[in-house]
């Protein structure tokens, strides 16, 4: 008998249907020589510390670092899981062959391997490796079953990730909780969670410490068109530009004469003098250039870019998008979601006309492509950019019974897929330069000549707000016809401006920062290169963000992610860069990917992690300062329930008794002394910025530095 094991009951049913197994039993489906069973995601997990030695049951600094001589797995304590595992165990003990039908990714491989190990499976194992759950894909996958040994590196990478998260999470969480925590509250530290929190905290401190500077802009209106004075770039700006050009693929060296214009206006007197200098002289057009350009369709989606787009357009959280796209995959209308490539492999190209035909609700958009040979662009089809899975695309099966969220996400994926077969958008950029009293002014306008792929998105001649912001506010507007040498009156004016602090992270911008280890990058090619060093995996980033919410390290203000005082203090108390540097975590992630590709050794990775954990323990234990972290109770958000915790970073339910939630009795006792203890805050250093002191307002306590941007606020109870 051949035993097939899937990751979910719904997937097992789909596989059983294709294999002709119809007889439903307790925990599996049988028929046609097959027994199809399932897990519920993870049935097994790494053992808890006390299961290696009783000495590790109680939390103490003396027991650190905890490094088991050999890691072991156990069944997760859950009656449903245990019952299903015993069904699987019995089937596997009598199987002639096992087919691993788990999700085709690192986590899916780990889930099934652990179950097979725990069940003591001894027979040959094959692997079903598919990118969608359509009947055609399942049949094709079974016709091309692969040896389980092909996926050994994938398993080793997943195992290394799990052990690495255990080593760092268990040791660092106990270490920081015992050393710096108060009131027996757990201070959770994680391999990916903590560097992600550090990104948010560092951005927040940049904003808080930002000192706005005043400056002025000189503009003039000529023939109903606003021209801006050209500003000379500073040496620092030129260096930054040169660095960006080095990183860019086809950078052109900037010529010294390109850096022309007036010095930036930093005092009103100079601005008014310039205004006086030009106001009575005519404005003369000195140069008009028109450059035709073309813009390729947007890339297909990987998981991160889909989460970014859904957060921007619909304010969906990364976790909501992941759950929605997973549901669309299980409903067989989109392909495998946990991917980090935006390309398709060449073997998908012949299937594309059929997929387009299946998009019945988009016939108006697919009709122009009917009967024509579809273009095969290297920006879409590139085998070298595809490893295990390709970009997220529709399967061609008509969607049915979709929820509102599913419809919106499917619409984004379908339109992106259709758009890549449309022509480029053709546009013309006109730049006009004028001069008054040797001061040069400039205006640019962009005109769409042929909308091309833009019609698929219903924006043939307009940009979204995000596009305008990304491209520096460049408008798609048509300028009047200007002629070199023409001259006439104009209306100049001086505009007072202030430099702006960086923006707080949103989920969209945080996902991008995680993808590129904190480097802000707009260029697609450069972003692809930095993905190698991204922190977390596309499939786990959403859960990491949710974990930070759950632990009250961050909260949401509209779309912005704000670190709580506890989150800020935690990052400030961590002196070990290894724990909070996105760049260093990105290097570990790169090594995990290399383990997958057989170019790095899993044993070496774990030895490095053990060494690192020992160094961190020594460093923290030698800290003689009496620092402590103030733990603030979470403020419940409207409509926000408890979210899933990232398996990779949770402190494994430890310690059960050491970190109780505040009980009702405790809350009542606390309420009595609340006002008194809160009044005692007045005059104390601000727990958020540390610069100001706590003051008492009409309805809440605040910070004396509120004018400088400190957002600390504690409402009166």
From TrEMBL:
InterPro entries for this protein: Topo_IA, Topo_IA_2, Topo_IA_cen, Topo_IA_cen_sub1, Topo_IA_cen_sub2, Topo_IA_cen_sub3, Topo_IA_core_domain, Topo_IA_DNA-bd_dom
Biased composition (Basic residues): 653-665
Keyword Isomerase: yes
GO biological process entries: DNA recombination; DNA repair; DNA topological change
Region annotation (Disordered) ranges: 631-679
Reactions the enzyme catalyzes: ATP-independent breakage of single-stranded DNA, followed by passage and rejoining
Gene Ontology CC: cytoplasmic replication fork
Alphabetized UniProt keyword annotations: DNA-binding, Isomerase, Metal-binding, Topoisomerase
Entries under Pfam families matching the protein: Topoisom_bac (PF01131), Toprim (PF01751)
Domain Topo IA-type catalytic as annotated: residue spans: 151-617
Keyword rRNA processing recorded: no
E.C. numbers: 5.6.2.1
Any one GO molecular-function label of the UniProt entry: metal ion binding
Top-level enzyme category: isomerase
Family classification: Belongs to the type IA topoisomerase family.
Protein name, per record: DNA topoisomerase
